[in-house]
């Protein structure tokens, strides 16, 4: 986050790009390390989700200071990621899984659209890359598409859990996975 603050202070695009790269690679590395060392925990997953949002907000603030014209795209992205995706990502807590990385056990379609490596890369970097290329309106459209995917995912999850709950398949003490 220090690089992002420095980028915002100096108005340096190369430092901003470096801040994004450090954030993205650091986020990937901590998750990989936890999985490889078999040290994943639900608390760690929540901490990761919260830290991702904090890091994203700091880097986005620097981006907006450097390029205020990116506000429409970055604003939509921030709402999508910091509000809607936060709720979706934290929904793993309702199931017997360690983190969103195991959401395929709950719903394979939601998992594919949100937590596979390609989905994570597109969800978190496409808008930034388009804005860096000065393609603000395509970036805003991309952010709206990702927002649509997140809303669809939440709606699908709500319908599935409501159905499972009415059939007695979803109980606070029971197995809460929806995939047969």
TrEMBL record:
GO biological process, one term: phospholipid biosynthetic process
Protein name from the UniProt record: CDP-alcohol phosphatidyltransferase family protein
GO molecular function: phosphotransferase activity, for other substituted phosphate groups
Keyword annotations of the record: Membrane, Transferase, Transmembrane, Transmembrane helix
Source species of the chain: Pedococcus bigeumensis
Pfam families the UniProt entry points to: CDP-OH_P_transf
UniProt cross-references to InterPro entries, sorted A to Z: CDP-OH_P_trans, CDP-OH_PTrfase_TM_dom, CDP_ALCOHOL_P_TRANSF_CS
A Gene Ontology cellular-component term: membrane
Membrane-spanning parts: 6-25, 76-104, 125-149
Family: Belongs to the CDP-alcohol phosphatidyltransferase class-I family.
Entry keyword Transmembrane helix: yes
